[in-house]
Amino acid sequence: MTISKDVLDELLNGVENAEDLLGDQGLVKELKVRLMERMLGAELTEHLGYEPDAKPANQQSNRRNGTSRKTLKGNDGALPIDVPRDRDGSFEPELIKKGQTRIDGMDDKIIGLYAAGLSTRDIRAHLEEVYGLKVSADLISRVTDAVLEEVSDWQNRALEPMYPIVFLDALRVKIRDAESRQVKNKAVYVALGVTPGG
User: Fold this and answer.
1) Please, are residues 95 and 36 in contact by the beta-carbon 8 Å criterion?
2) Which of 51, 95, 139, 175 has the largest count of CB atoms under 10 Å?
3) Rounded-to-integer distance, Cα 168 and Cα 190, Å
4) Neighbours of 185 (CB within 10 A)
5) Strands (E), 43-114
6) Which pTM value belongs to this model?
7) What are phi and psi of 148, to 5 degrees?
């Protein structure tokens, strides 16, 4: 997909500095929110079977029912979006699932920090400092608890009877070239292998 120059010019109209483009109230963040809202609206249209400006069939009881505000936490900080609703509550969006509050792999970041040995308090401070996200200690605990069983299984897995290891290294030696009579540094590669019983 290619964005035309005219569309880019229109989007960048009024952008004077990096903060206007990438800041907390910048164009990129607003564009992300608007695109998510548009995609959610398209999902609801697919679910209900009629366009927003069209009338539903008379026998259809389920209709559009406004929006509800939801704040997502992601790499860009907090993203407040309006999620469309239907009357009977049967709409299950795919883009942002019901109950989902995080996007952009925030769970992976929390797990990575936890694996590095950071405490819950350190993880909270890191996420707030780097991403501007205020997350609760309960959220961090829920995310880390979700992987504890997998970590335990991995730690208690059966080990193979043998793991072959190969060390590769190079020695730098000075060698005189027979034709040019110049001394050059060359690499002499050494491979050592560890074999069972050896």
Assistant:
1) yes
2) 139
3) 6
4) 8
5) 64-74, 77-86
6) 0.56
7) -60, -40
